[in-house]
Amino acid sequence: MPKKILLVEDEIALASVYMTRLVAEGYEVEAVSDGQSAITRAMQMQPDLILLDVMIPKVSGIQVLKTLRGDESTKNIKVIMLTALSQDNYKDQAEMLGIS
Predict the structure, then answer these.
(1) pTM of the predicted model as reported, rounded to 2 decimal places
(2) Residue 15 CB coordination number (10 Å)
(3) Measured at the alpha carbon of residue 15, what is the angle toward residues 8 and 48, in degrees to the nearest 5?
(4) What is the rounded distance in angstroms from the CA atom of residue 42 to the CA atom of residue 44?
């Protein structure tokens, strides 16, 4: 059974590139484009990994991570944060929530 990845990326072109590559590598990938959808789908699908953009509409990536870490059903899902930003503030917040 292929590993499930939830891709949270609001830039369609970038999401398409990620999806194409991940599917080619044999992963089952679902993409959403905003934070609220990310929370809902993570709770429903229980993915093996979430690729989470920091800057997304509705609910920020950091807030999505806080919500997932605070819920018993999603607190142990592996998360990789994606960002083009170089602000240490985002990195520090993510690290405090268990992202390395």
Answers:
(1) 0.86
(2) 19
(3) 45
(4) 5
Q: Which of 65, 63, 61, 82 is nearest to 17 (CA)?
A: 82
> Sign of the CA dihedral 84, 73, 48, 33?
negative
Highest-confidence segment of 21-30, 74-83, 90-99:
21-30
35 touches 63 (CB < 8 A) = yes
Residues contacting 64, CB < 8 A, separation 6+: 8, 35, 38, 39, 42, 52, 56
The helix (H) or strand (E) run that includes residue 20 is helix 12-24
Q: How far does Cα 12 stand from its chain's mean position?
A: 15
Average pLDDT value over all residues in the chain: 90
Residue 66: which residues within 8 A CB-CB, separation 6 or more?
A: 97
